[in-house]
Backbone:
């Protein structure tokens, strides 16, 4: 413990905050090589306020609870989509809370052929569509719906049978196999 006079002699004014950091260095096999101890001190003046109006710097205050709640991102709604794979009859039926563009970018990483959005509709109908087209599933969420006709038309009709009132957003389909 240092006295106030000793702290002042080192240039510290007011309360001093001291932190200790212990770092351990390890070999590749996990055995420890050594430890180091760092002690840091700071003399930033600590101020306590009873009333927010007494604070000189508005940025030092947390915003009111209602403003904090507004910073939490609102839950995004689900969207069901149909993707095509360039040069293939395969289509993917999926759902996302991300934008369709963002979802395509995520999926494209693992695909050698270009993925193209074919259809997007608000709401989560993925499970219902997977069940409806189970006989045409090739693997996972990938289907060959071409025996039923145009995949977009087939999925739109299935959505209408489910009572979906929203208009699907159709996307560019050039370059996909029939």
Residues:
């Amino acid at each position: 413990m240092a006295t106030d006079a000793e702290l002042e002699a080192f240039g510290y004014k007011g309360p001093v905050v001291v932190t200790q950091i212990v770092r351990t260095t390890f070999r590749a096999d996990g055995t420890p090589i050594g430890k180091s101890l760092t002690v840091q001190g700071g003399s930033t003046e600590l101020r306590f306020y009873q009333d927010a109006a007494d604070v000189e710097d508005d940025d030092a205050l947390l915003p009111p609870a209602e403003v904090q709640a507004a910073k939490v991102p609102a839950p995004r709604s689900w969207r069901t989509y149909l993707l095509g794979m360039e040069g293939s009859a395969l289509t993917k039926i999926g759902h996302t809370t991300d934008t369709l563009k963002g979802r395509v970018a995520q999926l494209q990483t693992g695909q050698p052929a270009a993925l193209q959005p074919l259809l997007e509709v608000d709401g989560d109908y993925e499970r219902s569509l997977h069940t409806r087209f189970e006989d045409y599933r090739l693997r996972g969420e990938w289907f060959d719906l071409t025996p039923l006709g145009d995949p977009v038309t087939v999925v739109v009709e299935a959505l209408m049978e489910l009572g979906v009132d929203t208009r699907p957003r159709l996307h560019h389909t050039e370059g996909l196999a029939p």
Notes: The chain has a mean pLDDT of 75. The first strand starts at residue 17 and ends at 26. The helical segments are 4-9, 65-71, 100-108, 126-132, 151-161.
